[in-house]
Amino acid sequence: MSAPQQNGEAAQEAGAPWTATVLTLFPEVFPGPLGVSLAGKALQRDLWRLDARNIRDHALDKHRSVDDTPFGGGAGMVMRPDVVDRALADVADRPGPVVNLSPRGRPLDQAVVRDLASEPGITLLCGRYEGIDERVLEARGVQEVSVGDFVLSGGEVAALVVLDAVVRLLPGVMGNVESGGDESFERDLLEYPQYTRPADWNGREVPAVLQSGDHARIARWRREQAEEITRARRPDLWARYQAAQEVPAAPRRQRRSPRRGDETD
Ligand SMILES: C[S@@+](CC[C@H](N)C(=O)[O-])C[C@H]1O[C@@H](n2cnc3c(N)ncnc32)[C@H](O)[C@@H]1O
């Protein structure tokens, strides 16, 4: 992502909450699910801000058109560069990177999420139809992020996914500061299984170790479970995890010259 001008934490200390500006043809989608629970409460507490703007407001013709047919032929329509450019120019003073949601973008993972959370904010561009004219993406240095190897009908749902994941990492949003550290993808491991009351549910008992009160054993058990699940389900993460576990070889001890009494063969 772009070089941070001021990270999320510093921006908050300076009194400016992390701000998400969303450029979309459907501003009514926002905040949607981000208006409830953790993200919603944080929005109410002004720990972050959300500004959804209608790209169509920048269409100048009487039909307010934002798209046209693709050069070279083919199905569908393409979002016009002039309209998208005016929408971007209107929010050019917003801090943080401009990110277009696109299936061909950098795959979203927890490292990308952490990167974005360390920025002072973000401007998200939501495509529709067949996407956005390439020239405006180039001209404005727009980055691209994908939420997975599948095609959605618009960038709005992808933007909600990005924002949900980022907002929960912003300072003060998660009540229990520790609750992020053990989660899936931290240290390249998926999370261990979780259990709550009742201890016996329909004859299925919670593993005894979790009721032992022995914190060291519990931590060991959880680590082993996390490793087992990651190894079985995500060979890509497992390989990275294993590589990180490899202890660097101890420096070779210098050979001393044999002394009298040393055994020789
Ligand atoms: C129907 S899609 C366009 C797909 C495009 N023609 C392609 O083949 O890559 C319309 C919009 O949905 C959004 N979108 C679809 N899939 C996405 C994904 N996996 N990640 C992020 N955004 C996505 C993008 O904003 C895209 O411009």
Describe the structure.
- There is one protein chain.
- This protein is an alpha/beta fold and 265 residues long.
- The protein is 31% helix and 15% strand.
- It folds into 2 domains: 8-167, SPOUT methyltransferase, trefoil knot domain (Alpha/beta knot, 3-Layer(aba) Sandwich), CATH 3.40.1280; 200-245, no CATH class.
- The strands form 3 sheets. The protein has a 5-stranded parallel β-sheet.
- Residues 101-104, 126-128, 130-131, 146-148, 150-155, 158 line the site of S-adenosylmethionine.
- S-adenosylmethionine is lined by residues 101-104, 126-128, 130-131, 146-148, 150-155, 158.
What structural class results from the helix and strand content? alpha/beta
Q: How many separate domains?
A: 2
Biggest sheet: strand arrangement: 2-1-6-5-7
Cα(first) to Cα(last) distance is 61 Å
Shape-level CATH architecture of the largest domain? 3-Layer(aba) Sandwich
- Give the amount of beta strand, in percent: 15-25%
Q: Helical amount among residues, as a percent range?
A: 25-40%
Attached small molecules: S-adenosylmethionine
Q: Tally of extended strands?
A: 9
Contiguous runs where pLDDT drops below 50 for at least 5 residues: 1-7, 257-265
| Overall geometry | elongated
Named CATH topology of the largest domain: Alpha/beta knot
Biggest pleated-sheet summary: 5 strands, parallel
Compressed to H and E, one letter per element, the order equals HEHEEEHEHEHEHEEHH
Q: What Rg, in angstroms, do the CA atoms define? A: 25 Å
In the CATH hierarchy, what is the class of the largest domain? Alpha Beta
Mean pLDDT: 90
